[in-house]
Amino acid sequence: MSFKDVLSPFTAWKHVLETPVTIKDPLTREAADRYRGFHKNDIELCIGCSSCEAICQNAAIDMVPVKDPKEGDSGLRPQIDYGRCCWCALCVDICMTGSLTMSNEYIWFDEDPDAFRFIPGVDAKSWDSSEKGYRREGGRRLSGTERVEMREMEPDLRIGNFDEIVAGYDRAEAVLEADRCVECGLCVATCPAHMDIPDYIKTIREGDYEHGLELLYNSNPFSEVCGRVCTHNCETACAARHEGDPIAIRWLKRHITDQVPYDRYVDIVGKPDLAKTGQKIAIIGAGPGGLTAAFDLARMGHAVTVYEEKEKPGGMMRYGIPEYRLPYESLDRDIGVIEAMGVKIKCGVRIGKDISMEKLKADNDAVVLAIGLHLGRSTRVPGSESPDVEKAVELLRRITAGEEVPVPKKVVVIGGGNVAMDIARSMARLQKQRHGEVGITVTALESFDHFLADEEEVVESREEGIEILDSRGPQEVITVKSGKNKGKVKGLRTWRVDSIFDEKGRFNPHYDEGDEMVHDGEMVIEAIGQVSDVSLLGEKLTEALEWNRGRVKIDHDGRTSEPWLWAAGDCVKGPDVINAVADGHRVAQSINQVLVAMREAKA
C-alpha cells in the first residue's frame, strides 16, 4: 500500500463544511408511479407457492407459516428481508397469481432493524393501501402459460380398435412443458401418494431419466400406469393454473417411464438389501392397493404372498380400464417390478373356497383385504331384470378379458362417471368393428356442470360419435311385453332431472314428469356404481367386523376392528388408482410397525 493510499480517506474532510446534497426526509418528493418501492401482497390471492423465494438470488425472501391460511394453499407467505432486497422485482414478475406487487413508497424510518424484515399483507404497513407502484405488466410472463398439447390418435382412426390413443411427449415437448414448472411443491401435498413431483420434473430438464425413474418408483410402484390413467388431482393445485394451464404432471410422469429401457427398471429401483424378518403377510387381491402394500412390505424384509381370484394380476386396472387408455404391457411392467422385490402372486385362487380366511389368519402375521369393486349396482327400475340389461363393470371385465359379448346396433348407457364413458367407448369400438357405425347413447343424472366423468373422457367420447345426455333419470327399461321376443329390451324411458339431492343432502332425485324421452336400444348398460364381493369373508368374520355403509370400517391406518386384518384400496376408498396406491403405502407402514413391535416383544 502506498503512502497516498493511506492518506486518501482523510481527503474527504475537505467537504465537511459543504451543504449536503441529500435530504433526510424528502416529504415533498414523490416517487414515480411505477417505482419499485416496498412490497405489498394480496393475501386473498397468494397461495404460498414459493416461486418468489425460489427466484430471489439475494435470499431476501423466506416462506413462513401464517395463521388461518386458505384451504388448498401451502399455508406459507413470503417474508421480505430489506437487508438483502435489491428491488429487482423478479419476485413480482414470477408471482403465479399476481398477488405480489411493490408500492412506490421509498421512505421508511425505524430504529428497530428487525422491522425491516416483515410479511407483506400480514404485517400492516402504511403503504398497503397505496395504488401506485410496480406490478407485472399484463401480458408479460416469465414462464409459459399454455401446456404442450398431447398428440393423440384421430377419432376416425381410433374408433375401430383398442390401440392406445395417447402418443406421449417426445424429448423436446417434455422439456418445454417441464420448463413451465416453478417447483412450488403445492402438487406434492395434493397427490394422495405425495410423489416428489417437482424433483422428478427437474430430472426431465436435466435429462437424468434414470434418477427420475428412481424418484417415481420410490413413491409409486405403478408409475407406468399412473402416467396414463391417474386422475391427476395434483394438477388442480398447480400454481401455473392461476396464469394459464396447469403443468401436465401426468404426461411428464409417463415421459420419464417411456425414456428408460424396461430391463433397467429393477436395477434403478433397487432390490432391498435387508435381513429377512421371518414374518409373513397375506394380501387378498392383486389390484393397486394390495400390490402397493406388497411392494412396500417386501422391501421391508417381510415375506409377502398375494392371492388373486382372476387369471392375471392387476385388479380393476386390468379388468376395468380399457386398453386404449392403459396398454396392459405397461401394467405388466409395473407388476414385474413388484415381483422382482420378492412378492409372490398366486392367481386363480378364490379365498373362502380354495383357502379359508381362518387358514390365512393362522398361517400369517397379518392379512390385508384389497378386493376392489368388481360387482355392479342396479337401478332396480322396472324392466332392469331383463337379460339384455348389463352391469358396466362386469361387461368391461369380459371385454378386457377378450371374451365374446353381445354387440347390438343400439345401446343405452345409464351413468355419467368414468366407468360409464369407458363402457360406452368400448362398446362403440365393438359396434364399429361389427356394424361399421356407432349407436351409443349415454344418459346421466348429473348436469354437465356437475359431471362425474373426467372432461377429457367426455370430449373423446363425443369425438367418437357417442351421444351424451345430461340430467336424465331412468324410469323404465322398455321391453317387449308378449310374443317370442318377450322380455327383450327395446329402449330406456327417462325423465328430466330437477334435483338429485334433498335439502338435507340425501340422494333423493326429483323429476319433471312432463319432460319424458325414450332412447332406443337393444341393450341397456347400468354404470351407476360398484360394490365389493365380501362373500369370501364368511358369515362368522362378517358378523365380527364393523361396517360403514356396506364397506369394512377401518381406522386411519387401514386396520379393521379385527386386529389381524387390514383393508385397502377401492373396497374402502372407491375407484381410483392413485388413492389405492396411497392406501397401500399407509397399510404397509401400519403393518410394519405392528410386526416390529411383535419382534421386539419376543426379543
Outline the fold blueprint.
Blueprint: H1 3-7, E1 39-41, H2 51-55, E2 61-65, E3 76-81, H3 90-94, E4 100-103, E5 117-118, E6 133-134, H4 155-158, H5 171-178, H6 186-190, H7 197-206, H8 209-219, H9 223-229, H10 249-259, H11 265-269, E7 280-284, H12 288-299, E8 303-308, H13 316-319, H14 328-340, E9 344-347, H15 357-363, E10 366-369, E11 375-376, E12 389-391, H16 392-400, E13 411-414, H17 418-435, E14 440-443, H18 455-463, E15 467-469, E16 472-479, E17 489-501, E18 507-520, E19 523-526, E20 530-531, H19 538-544, E21 547-548, E22 551-552, E23 565-567, H20 570-573, H21 577-602
Parallel strand pairs: 7-8, 7-10, 8-9, 10-23, 12-19, 13-14, 13-19, 14-15
Antiparallel strand pairs: 1-4, 2-3, 3-5, 4-6, 11-20, 16-17, 17-18, 21-22
